[in-house]
Design brief:
Blueprint (H helix, E strand, L loop, with lengths): L1 H15 L2 H20 L4 H25 L1 H7 L12 H21 L2 H18 L6 H4 L2 H22 L8 H21 L14 H4 L2 H25 L6 H23 L2 H26 L1
Length: 294
Amino acid sequence: MKLNLLKRIRTYQKERFPLVVLLLSLVPAILSSGAVVGGVVHLVPLLCAVVVSVAYLAHIRIIDEQRDYLHDNEYHKTRPIQAGVITLSELRTIDLGIVVLILAVSFSLGLIPLITSLVLIAYSYLAGREFFLGERLRSHFFLYNSVNLLQMVLMQVLVYAMFGLSTLPTALIVLHFLFTTSGTLIFEFLRKVKIPGEDGTGKDTYTWYVPFGRALWIYFLLFLVTVSLFFLLILHTQINQYWWMWIGIIEVCSALFWTILHSTQKTHKTEQALQGSFLLNYAILNMIIYFAII
């Protein structure tokens, strides 16, 4: 039974919580976060930040499964819970262990990370209950998604706290926060940009409300904002070399290429290529920030 449960958890994780993809975006962002806070990134807070970030995202995923259960029963019947791969009761038990892990690791780094974790977990439960507004909130798609996206943004504050930030943030940290917020927004936006004909009827994608081509250009504009914030951030470090500017320009050209290709071909391969190119570009920008500071 135990092996069966582990196998089912693995099946659920592969579809609903792609760990490798998350780590590709999380680890570079966490490294650059540690660099802007303290200059030197030590191993213990780095590992703690990675563990807590992954755990918190898993916690949010499980909260989302509970909140969207009835909606998914009607519009997404092939998802793991609806297909009988795993039950909500099993996920709740797993989530309890995840919350304990988050609080324990946060406490090991000090009172501020612990308090920040408690605030994030409290907010996640409120968001999971739709702030007791129910359909009145859910019916406003963009507001509804913004409220939930805020959980990801607040997680960045926790990462800073885990690296020792306990005073007012510097200009460098503020720029980095805006940079990572922009990257998080793109990550979440692309997840809900679907090829025409694959939006379903649940009204839970951006392309249900915004034409496919326009949504892709919104992505490209958001990427331009992200690269612009990267330029401002690097300039703030007072690096004398400017090779990093060429990397930013190359990345913009790459994003433009995949935006145009996907808008014309509209295939699963171009969709994956667009998403993959963003993850790679975002990781590279974060690593440049990291090495520019340390």
